[in-house]
Amino acid sequence: MGLHVKPILPKFGAECSGLDITRELSPAELKQVTDAMDTYGVCVYRDTGLTDEQHVEFSRNFGYLERVPTREGFKMRLPFRELFDASNLNPEGEITTDEAAISYRKGDRLWHTDSAFMEKRTSYSLLLAHEVPSEGGETWFADTRSAYEDLPEEMKLFLEDKVGINSLWWSRKQAGADIPEEEIDARFKARHPLVHVHRGSGRKALFIAAHTMDIEGMDKQEGRDLIKQLIEHCTQPQYIFSVKWNAGDLVIWDNLCTMHKGGEYDYKSFKRDMRRTTVREGTEPHTMDLDDSFTKLFADSPKVVDIQGARAAGR
Ligand SMILES: [Fe+2]
User: 1 C-alpha to center of ligand 1: Å?
Assistant: First the structure.
């Protein structure tokens, strides 16, 4: 039985069914999966039955998987370094009370694209729900291709050669972390064009995120005002939808043509156990043993974005 694809919005988001993704897929089946991604940007697979190992194996079909940063003495909750821990749990599996981890995760509730702060961007994120709160905790997605296409022509021309400067610590500052701007300036920032051609569809997309701090060559305030304006544009009701999770659900999104954010929930009362694999842009399926870039980035991370919280997703 082939993949059944049911759109959520006419050009964005789809509920996918009819394919058992716990097993190895044929090239034709895999093409159905990537074709659906190229068209809709976000694909929801319900009640997958995926184990951690199958989640990682399925994800390897799409390229090299980033690895969770490590540090001496750091204890991992999850069994594979390819699984980023997007939960509100400590390494023992209990609800965390670590203020650094809680602070870090507040940034996940701003509109962003995963890993925009890295030099090597993330194409697909594959997030699997293991345990979810009874209320809240949905994930919202925004269509940055349709939003780009609807911009006035003069804005498109203005943006054509603009480059965004992205920092993980900037997004954490936006979410309330007390990080001086000088400290952000002293750390790595990634440069990415604000507009690019989405390879899978040939459509242009905006590439912006809560990580986008400045626009190269623009006055700082004007650049920041424009970033805010563009995020507001992309997140108007016609471009967004939310996914309500149940345990076993997998959502794949293409960070190069979407933004997303987590919805609020009572994180002190409910466990939300979400695990994510993260595919590096432009890499071949089943590529192993490339550089360990997340460990390098987090090697000198300040306490407010501590590595305990950083497991929450490279967001
Ligand atoms: Fe994210």
Answer: 32
Please tell me the pTM assigned to this model: 0.95
What are the helix (H) ranges across the chain? Answer: 27-40, 52-59, 99-106, 144-149, 153-159, 168-174, 181-185, 220-234, 293-298, 307-310
Question: At which residue do the structure tokens 């993330």 appear?
Answer: 122
Interval between CA 299 and ligand 1 midpoint (Å): 21
Distance 139 CA to ligand 1 centre (A): 9
Alpha carbon 123 to chain centroid distance?
9
Q: How far is the CA of 208 from the centre of ligand 1 (A)?
A: 13
Token pair 């969770």 is at which residue? 68
Residues around ligand 1, an ion, CB closer than 5 A: 114, 315
Each residue's pLDDT tens digit, 176-231: 888 899 989 999 999 999 999 999 999 999 999 999 999 999 999 999 999 999 99
Domains for the chain: give ranges and CATH numbers. Answer: 4-310 (3.60.130.10)
Starting at the edge strand found earlier in the chain, the sheet holding 190-193 runs 190-193, 163-166, 212-215
Q: How far is the CA of 124 from the centre of ligand 1 (A)?
A: 11
